[in-house]
Amino acid sequence: MEILAEFHRGNLRGAEKASEQLKNKIIIFDTSFYKHLISFYQAHIHFLFFRMRESLKSIQNLDVFEKDKAGWNLGVRLLRIMNFIEMDKLDTAELHIESMRKHIERTEKSGIKVRKRDKTILKILIELVKQDFNFQKTLMKKADLIALLGSTEFEYCWEMMKHEMIVFHVWFKAKADGIEYDPNILNHPNEVAVSGKS
Fold first, then answer.
1. Could you tell me if residue 195 is inside a domain?
2. Is residue 197 part of a domain?
3. Which of 55, 81, 82, 157 has the fewest C-beta atoms under 10 angstroms from its C-beta?
4. What's 114's DSSP letter?
5. Does pTM top 0.85 for this prediction?
6. Does any domain span residue 160?
7. 81, 94, 68, 97: which is closest to 171 by C-alpha?
8. For the chain, what is the domain count?
9. How confident is the prediction along the chain (198 residues), in pLDDT tens digits per residue?
10. Of the candidates 56, 66, 48, 65, the residue with the CA atom closest to the CA atom of residue 6
């Protein structure tokens, strides 16, 4: 999909233009899943342009995604948490991290498997809360988990076509280093091992 190609090349303007064009086509066909998917993609574009309110608004009422408990639902939850962190609404971020923990627990109890990568991301976020949202301290404490997320192991590696558009561990390291996240995955050859499965 052109949106993802432009997004992961770091061409956010191109991704935004492609998303608007596709959104106009989707309206004609009125397919709920793809409408929600475009809104989900646009939310990430807004996030990287620091339009946090627009990002949060774009992921409201994505009913179709709610049903995918171990997939798109987690993507929405994670982006919401990242938005609140960037907005410095840390109490709200903490509440949503706890909500994500309960959601994953309920999902697994219902017999639905949650990927180890998503559970590892949750562990890192829980530690981040314990460290009062100090990214550097959390990175030192959980360096082994961050390394796992950058590995080639299928259960832990990043999947481009799934619900994690912003590569979590790359974003986390950027926060720890006090720099902006670079969405161009070609600039992170040693940190982004892309799964061959879709």
1. no
2. no
3. 157
4. -
5. yes
6. yes
7. 81
8. 1
9. 789 999 999 999 999 999 988 887 765 555 688 888 999 999 999 999 999 999 999 999 888 888 899 999 999 999 999 999 999 999 999 999 999 999 999 999 999 999 999 999 999 999 999 999 999 999 999 999 999 999 999 999 999 889 999 999 999 999 999 999 999 999 998 788 655 443
10. 48
